[in-house]
Amino acid sequence: MHSLKNISVLMLLAFSLLITTTDAQADTTKYFGNIRYNHVSPHVEIKGVNPLNKEQIANRPHFIFTYGSNKKLFTIVDKSYNVVKRHHIASLGAYKVTFTYENNKETRHFFDVNNEPMLNMKGVYKEVYSFNDNGFKNELSFYDLQGKIMESNWKISNYQWFKKGNWVVEQRFNLKNEKQPLAPYFDFATTAIEYDTLGNPYKHFNLNEKLEVTNNAVGVAYYQDTYDEKGLHKKYAYYDQNNHMTHNQWKFGYAVKHYDELGNYLYRIKFDKESKQLSPSYKKTIPQPTSTKDIAEIKRIATGYLIALQQRKPDLMKEVLHEKLAKHTISNYAEGGQYIRETTYDSLLKFAQSWNSDGTRFPPVPKNQVTILDSYKNMATVKLVSDNWYEYLHLIKMDGQWKIKNLVWTRH
Q1: Which residues on neighbouring strands pair with residue 329, listed in sequence order?
Q2: pLDDT tens across 242-297, in order?
Q3: Helices in 157-283 by DSSP H: which ranges?
């Protein structure tokens, strides 16, 4: 047992030494606003897009790429502050990634903000890519901290690639050497990647056992990606084996992505295969400081919750509560000890109908005192004191309406 622990310690020390050596060798630093969006395959190289300078990174999320004297990538530090759309393949899934190269292999390790090894977005500690003598990336395997091969979150332990014409053909396997689909939610079997002239993954095909383009169960044979002049992923569309646009399992034919002036992803609009817009047009909501009108409304909504119980007004209760309400109190066991007791949204609607039906739950003239402790943009914290209870509420404003989202209480 002690020997295993010592081995783990030595491995961590080796990792730390590796990082130190890597950083010392790095002599070029570049900054990027984004990483090329890749939901296709780990065969696709990591590439920074939307380059920035030192002045620009001072006030915006970014990625830091460092390169060695041989121009190979050595580290990526993620300072994106989670503004990037996270995806199993598209996201680095770690604060820091280190790259080492030896014997036709590239190894990637993943570290958190404390420089401790961590699981990346795929759910693995180490990725080892293999290259043939021509420099073609032909395999990827995943490992744990002890160097034992492991499966990703998608139950994949090994990727294998080979060339067929202008395609890169991909197959994926679990620990039992069973073939795996492209993703748990996307049923492509053996697949082929076609790159554009700039090295971006352009088309991604579903192949049968004869390596022929074929429809999957919902009639999709391939999807096609396009990029803007900054390298940002702009559009993706779905086609059948006859090159006709078709609908995917989510019932749309293509989607167009939109970004802000900094290159941060904002939203997408989906269309059917006839180009009929399916998603509502995006309307950016600019939160405003809490106005006098908002303050009055916050107080009305907060006290409305009590009035709905006191005066048996289920419609008012429905008006003031958010459907995803979380209401809790700390209760005591008869034999000692405490537990958290929940009251659901549906329960409160029922309570508003009948809980005070005999008129004895509250004084004839209730005292409902509301104090706004803090408010910022579309959020507010409120203290509510009545004859019966002492409560703290969180309110949120969505689509112009204030609602009670969270509530904790205890008896007076």
Answers
A1: 341, 409
A2: 999 999 999 999 999 998 887 878 889 999 999 999 988 776 666 566 789 999 99
A3: none
What DSSP string describes 267-290?
Answer: EEEEE-TT--B-SPPP------PP
Phi, psi at residue 296, to the nearest 5°? -65, -40
Between CA 51 and CA 60, with CA 54 as vertex, the angle to 5 degrees is 70
CB 220 within 8 A of CB 191: no
Residue 203 near residue 224, CB atoms below 8 Å: yes
Report the sign of the C-alpha dihedral through residues 200, 206, 207, 212, in that order. negative
Count CB neighbours of 234 within 10 A. Answer: 17
**Considering the entire predicted model, what is its pTM?**
0.68
Report CA-CA distances (Å) from 53 to 29, 48, 254, 289: 10, 13, 34, 33
Query: Is 3.10.450.50 the CATH classification of the domain at 292-411?
Result: yes
Query: How far is the CA of 227 from the CAs of 38, 179, 187, 192, 334, in angstroms?
Result: 11, 31, 24, 19, 64
Does residue 344 contact residue 351 with C-beta atoms inside 8 Å? Answer: no
